[in-house]
């Protein structure tokens, strides 16, 4: 069996090429993943902000939401 020798630059280029291929082939899934991460971060911030603000009655909220 033949022995294959790679230097660090060849390994780096091979990994870069493989990563780019994975990113291209899974673009839709990655977009969904990043969208979910951003939504989760926004929800976390909203919850944290809500914990430090004044409470509002349910009636007040529905008045604001009325057209």
What is this structure, in a nutshell?
The chain is mostly helical. 76% of the residues lie in helices and 0% in strands.
| Proportion in helices | over 70%
Main sheet? none
What structural class do helix, strand and pairing data support?
mainly alpha
- The geometry reads as rod-shaped
Mean pLDDT: 93
Question: Mind telling me the C-alpha Rg?
Answer: 25 Å
Count of discrete domains: 1
Descriptive tags:
mainly alpha; 3 helices; 67 residues; rod-shaped
Task: Provide structural commentary.
The chain is built from 3 helices and no strands. It is mainly α and 67 residues long. It has one domain. It starts with 7 loop residues before the first helix and ends with a helix. 0% of the residues are buried.
Task: Itemize the secondary structure elements and their pairings.
Layout: H1 8-25, H2 27-51, H3 58-65
